[in-house]
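Technical annex, item 7. During the second reporting period the consortium partners agreed on a shared format for inverse folding records so that results from different sites could be compared directly. Each record opens with the tokenized structure and is followed by the designed sequence. A conforming record, contributed by the partner at site C, is shown below for reference.
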């Protein structure tokens, strides 16, 4: 197997693997907070679920880019292109993982907020969305690198 293909495949794995890892940590923390809020008021299940589900985006971005990279990696004929795909995957994976973990902390705060004040769902979503933007920037930057190959 050509080295360029191997580098691209590794990039695809990093894209989803690292972003998915961070997402799992975030969702676990948010789930713990959600369970606490729901134990106090079972009617808040829907709101807590929405706030926790927002955290899946990092894994979605990493999976999307990982699939794109994998598809392109299998047709790579040079090391430079494979290296570019590796870098694109690393950008999405590493930034996705780091931001996702912090995203989880914000989701926990949002879940606690709705636990104390039911009418604050929109505010909770806004504070969570602000952290989300960094992952979107990482996806866009990684996609630009991917698209250059």
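Designed sequence (site C submission):
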């Amino acid at each position: 197997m050509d080295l360029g293909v191997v580098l691209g495949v590794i990039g695809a794995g990093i894209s989803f693997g690292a972003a998915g890892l961070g997402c799992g940590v975030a969702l676990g923390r948010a789930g713990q907070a959600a369970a606490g809020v729901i134990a106090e008021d079972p009617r808040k299940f829907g709101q807590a679920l929405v706030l926790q589900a927002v955290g899946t985006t990092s894994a979605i971005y990493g999976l999307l880019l990982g699939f794109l990279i994998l598809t392109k990696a299998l047709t790579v004929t040079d090391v430079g292109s494979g290296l570019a795909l590796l870098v694109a995957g690393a950008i999405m994976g590493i930034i996705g993982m780091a931001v996702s973990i912090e995203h989880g902390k914000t989701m926990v705060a949002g879940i606690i907020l709705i636990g104390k004040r039911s009418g604050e769902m929109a505010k909770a979503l806004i504070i969570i969305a602000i952290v989300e933007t960094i992952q979107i920037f990482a996806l866009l930057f990684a996609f630009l690198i991917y698209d250059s190959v």
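The chain is about 85% helix and 0% strand. The CA atoms of residues 37 and 115 lie 5 Å apart. All partners now use this format for quarterly exchanges.
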